[in-house]
Amino acid sequence: MYVVMNELHVPSERKAVLTERFSRSAENMSHVPGCIEFLFLDNENEDGKQVVFTKWESKKDYENWLESDAFKNAHKQKGNSEKQAAQTNELQAYTVAHQSS
Ligand code: HEM
C-alpha cells in the first residue's frame, strides 16, 4: 500500500473555493483504478495548509494515475494564476509499514 499527500499552501480567502473544488474530486477519484481513499484535509494548527490525501493499492497504481488523462485534466489550471487557488505545494509519499484492521 502507498500513501501520497500533496500539502497545499492556500491564502485564507481562497480556502472555501478550493474546498468546494475538491469536494467534487471524491467522485472523480472513486473511479481511479487502485485508489483506495481520497481525503481533503484542513490542518488544525496551520491556517493556510490544506492537504490532499490519497491511498493506493500500490505505487504503480499511483504512477499510472499520474500518467493518466484524469490527472492531467484535474491539473489543467496549473500555472494559470487566476484559477490557481494554491500558492505552493509540497509532496510527501509513504509506503505503509503497518496497517491495523
Ligand atoms: C504539482 C503541483 C500540484 C498542484 C499545485 C496541485 C494543485 C491542485 C489543485 C488546485 C487541484 C484542484 C483542481 C480543480 O478541481 O479545480 C488539484 C486536484 C487534485 N490533485 Fe493536485 N496538485 C499538484 C499535484 C498533485 C499530485 C502530485 C497529487 C498526488 C497526490 C495531487 C493530488 C490531487 C488530486 C487527488 C486531485 C483531485 C483530482 C480529481 O478531481 O480528479 N496533485 N490539485
TrEMBL record:
Keyword annotations: Monooxygenase, Oxidoreductase
GO molecular function (one): monooxygenase activity
Biased amino acid composition, Polar residues: 82-101
Record keyword Oxidoreductase present: yes
Disordered: annotated span: 74-101
Family annotation (Pfam families): ABM (PF03992)
Keyword Oxidoreductase: yes
Occurrences of domain ABM (ranges): 2-91
Name this polypeptide is given: Antibiotic biosynthesis monooxygenase
